[in-house]
Amino acid sequence: MKRLSLMFATTLVTGTAACAPSEPPLGSVAQTATGGATATADVRSVVGQSRATATATQIGDSIRVRVDAQRMPRGTYAAHVHTTGACAPPDFNSAGPHWNPTGQQHGRNNPAGMHKGDLPNLAIGSNGRGNFEFTIPAASVSGGSTAMLDGDGAALVIHSQADDHRTDPSGNAGARIACGVFR
Ligand SMILES: [Cu+2]
Ligand SMILES: [Zn+2]
After folding, report:
1. 82 alpha carbon to ligand 2 midpoint, in Å?
2. If exposure means fewest CB atoms within 10 Å of the residue's CB, which of 25, 76, 78, 162 is most exposed?
3. 4 CA distance to ligand 2 middle (Å)
4. Which numbered ligand comes closest to the C-alpha of 176?
5. pTM of whole model > 0.70?
6. Residues near 99 by beta carbon (within 8 Å), at least 6 away in sequence
7. pLDDT tens digits, 145-181
């Protein structure tokens, strides 16, 4: 009976969505209950397997980024916001360089750094999971001169190696192994 109710609820939600006048355009943002804009990325491997969910939420004049990863080999991996919302496998070069609206160099340990898109390394444990939360100061999810979701959007990219947080332009982080467009 509980399962039946659940199925009914799912049908209801789907039916409501189908009645919406149109799909939101690429790069549009939803409003959270607290009023801050939010965007989410489904981060997938080169063969389309889900690897992480990334959420970017406007909090005051900052963006709070949360990344939750699963089904990854144990290790330490670079993660960045890249400047273009396009994830074409197998190399994900379509996502462009790190999001950098203020013209800085790469890395928090670089005196000329850092990019707005620079994030902490993702530490994956033996259970295949890992996560972090990080605040990007003086940035907006949408709108203004430091908008993450500008005309061509943005993507969350995970790399094969750790970021050294110093080497311009990409921290010696190796290949791009997973990518998700913020929507
Ligand atoms: Cu990157
Ligand atoms: Zn960078």
Report:
1. 8
2. 25
3. 49
4. 1
5. yes
6. 80, 81, 82, 83, 115, 116, 117, 148, 154
7. 899 999 999 999 999 999 999 999 999 999 999 999 9
Q: Which two tokens stand for residue 115?
A: 């990019």
CA dist., res. 139 & res. 17, Å (int): 31
Q: What would the two tokens of residue 122 be?
A: 């993702």
| Domains of the chain and any CATH numbers | 25-181 (2.60.40.200)
Distance 8 CA to ligand 1 centre (A): 41
CA of 105 to the centre of ligand 2 (A): 7
* DSSP letter assigned to residue 153: -
The CA 99 to ligand 2 mean position distance, Å, reads: 7
Contact 95, 84 (CB under 8 A): yes
